[in-house]
Amino acid sequence: MASVLKVDKLDPQSGTALEIGTSGDTISVPSGATLDISSATLTPPATMPASSGVNLTALNATNLGSGTVPTARLGTGTASSSTVLYGDNTWAAAGGNNTPNFWVYNSTAQTISTATHTAIAFDTAVIDTASGLGSYRWTVPAGQGGTYFLTFRQIYSGTWDARIIAFIYNNGAQVMGMQADKERADGGVHVNGIITLSAGDYIEGYVYQSSGSDQDVVAGSLWNSLSGFKLL
Predict the structure, then answer these.
(1) Tens of pLDDT along 67-113?
(2) Per-residue b/e over 189-200, b at no fewer than 16 CB within 10 Å?
(3) How many independent structural domains does the chain possess?
(4) Is pTM, for the whole model, over 0.70?
(5) Inter-residue contact 133 to 122 (CB < 8 Å)
């Protein structure tokens, strides 16, 4: 039968060491009771028993005398000789590769009415790492906002005695443009520059010509194209 010893304080009979229990015994602190050692010095054993570290909120890493923290515990992704740990706790390739990047073009020749701004019907991708091409435009994918370098090139055929302007549009508004005064048969104009884009922004290429009649721009990736890449 268990007995209860009720005292306010236990002191060793002699010396300064007090032993509770015998080897093999289990000393239990029941639920609801508090073992307060906040004012004492706790000397743990050389090998700590397995326990949860959920409450170790102020572990000083400078006191780790030996050993290493496994890379799998430092962040998400795969740690390797070709990856580094970034500030958002993700392992990724060092440097970067300027993605997303794209190069799209119109596969069919297109008529440009005089004195109008006409969108080029980009329908084919040579490169499109983020699959952003759709509805004749390129759309910045989710999570890929940033600074981009863009280029729009258009080549016209025949003799246009006219002013030709190539525009890059962002979300339906002109953001870059370049003009060429046509003085010879067959020519072209291109525009490029740097712009900050957000996820969901869409990029288009427009052409304006003032020849007084309808004119054609040729088709193919070598002639009319819209391209770009995200800067690191």
Answers:
(1) 777 777 778 888 887 788 887 888 877 776 799 999 999 999 898 89
(2) bebeeeeebeee
(3) 2
(4) no
(5) yes
Residues 85, 196 share a domain: no
> Is residue 168 in some structural domain?
yes
46: left (phi over 0), alpha (psi -120 to 50) or beta: alpha
Of 2, 205, 195, 46, the closest CA to residue 123 belongs to 205
Q: Are 190 and 152 in contact (CB under 8 A)?
A: yes
How many residues belong to the chain?
232
> 231 φ, ψ to 5°?
-75, 150
Does 146 lie in the same domain as 206?
yes
Task: Say yes or no: 219 and 108 in one domain.
Answer: yes
7 belongs to a structural domain: no
Question: Using one digit for the tens of pLDDT, what is the confidence trace for 139-184?
Answer: 999 999 999 999 999 877 665 566 788 999 999 999 999 887 655 4
CATH number of the domain residue 152 falls in: 2.60.120.40
